[in-house]
Structures are given as C-alpha cells and as structure tokens.
Amino acid sequence: MLSRIREPEVMDTAEEAVDYNQMDHSNVNRRFVDDFLRALELRDPTEPRCVNVFDAGTGTALIPIELIQRDQTFFVTASDLAQAMLVVARENILTAGLEASIQLILSDCKRLPDGDGAYDVVMSNSIVHHIPEPHSVLAELWRILKPGGILFVRDLMRPDDIKTLENLVQTYAGDANSHQQKMFRESLHAALTVDEVRELVGELGISGAAVQPTSDRHWTICVKKRNMEFA
Asked: How would CATH label the architecture of 14-230?
C-alpha cells in the first residue's frame, strides 16, 4: 500500500484555480449529484422540500451549480478556504445566473462558525485529502448537520501502488496539461483508504458500513445522522 503523502491544504493561486476549473469534471460532478439526490431519499418525507445544504471545500462551485440546475428547491452555502477558488466560483455562479441560490463563504471547515445542527444536508467532494488531520473536518461536518440530516462526503481513494496510481492519472487526466496531471497525481497520493476513513468515522459514532468504495478512485460516506442508516 502506498504511504500517504500530504499535499498543500489550500490551493490558493490563480493558476491552480483556473487549471482546476478548466479540467473536465463534468462526469464526476454529474455522478456526484445523481448519487447525492438518491441519498436524500433517506430524509423524512414529512420534512420541507426546500433543503438548506452546506458544501465543504466547494472549489469553483461546479457541484452546487450542477445541483441547483437540476433542482431549484435547494439553497447552498458553499465554503472554501482558498480565496482564488472563490473568485472563479463567483464568476461561474454569475454566468449560470444562480447567485440567489448559492452563497459563497471563505471559511476553514476544520473550525466552522455555524451552530450545531445548522444544516439539513452536508455534502463535500474532495476536501478530505487536502486536510492534514481529516478527523477535524469530518467532526465539524457532522456537528453542523441537524438530526435527521444527511452527510454525503466523497473523495479520492489512495491506490495500492504506483502502477495503479499512474494508470488512474493516464485514464482520467491523460488529456490534461502537465500541471493538471501533477495536481491529480498529488491528490491521489494524499488520499485516504476506505479503512482509514472507516476508522475516522468510527470515532464519531458512525458505522464503518457508511463508508463504501464507489468507483475505481473514490470512496463515499453516506449516512443519516439520526439513526446512522447507510444508503
């Protein structure tokens, strides 16, 4: 098994933000939103249809945009610690005409200002591998989720060996530029394994069954807070 090699927590240069935004995330984002919407079937059907969502590590806000374009009953508070990412995110939101449905905030998801149980749903795509001690961010996301709410977190899964890692880079970033390939390679190195994530959520009282591999390069946490029910 490859050892975890941490990468910088914050991607906060204009070059990183633009390169990240220009990579083709469409299939990954579409599948994330598909699976996220299915996960919401775990919510109590008597709950209001309008859902207050927190998106941790939103990057350039591509997933909130995809979500709102699919279902306008959501309001998303989209958080990132990288100002450069939020600059591009704001442009994307304005271009999509969704500024009334997505609020951008600059915040550290390891120490959020929100009260306990502030959000109906908490989602995140690819924040965990950026965090030196991932327990801190998972604990905060669990804290701000209200009882009965859904936690839906997806991230990269660290490969077993260098050969597998390089195959993933070529498969999913083979047409990208060298800097984009480098970012993806470093992210795979920094990612956690399913077993590592299960250990972390166990410390929060969440069953390890809530963590599953969901592609050849992703794991997903999907759990309802009230009864720890896996989707």
From this structure: 3-Layer(aba) Sandwich (3.40)
Domain-wise residue ranges, the chain? 14-230
Q: Which run of H or E residues covers position 186?
A: helix 178-190
Q: Which segments of the chain are extended strands (E)?
A: 51-56, 74-80, 102-106, 119-125, 145-156, 211-213, 218-224, 229-230
Q: What digits encode the pLDDT tens for the residues 127-155? A: 999 999 999 999 999 999 999 999 999 99
With contact defined as beta carbons under 8 Å apart, do 224 and 146 qualify? no
The per-type count for the chain, helices as H runs and strands as E runs, is 8, 8
State the pairing for strand pair 145-156/218-224. Answer: antiparallel
Q: Is 141:56 a contact under the CB 8 Å cutoff?
A: yes
- If one counts every other C-beta atom within 10 angstroms of the C-beta of residue 198, the result is 19
What value does the mean pLDDT take over residues 95-100?
98
Measured CA to CA, the distance from residue 152 to residue 111 in angstroms comes to 19
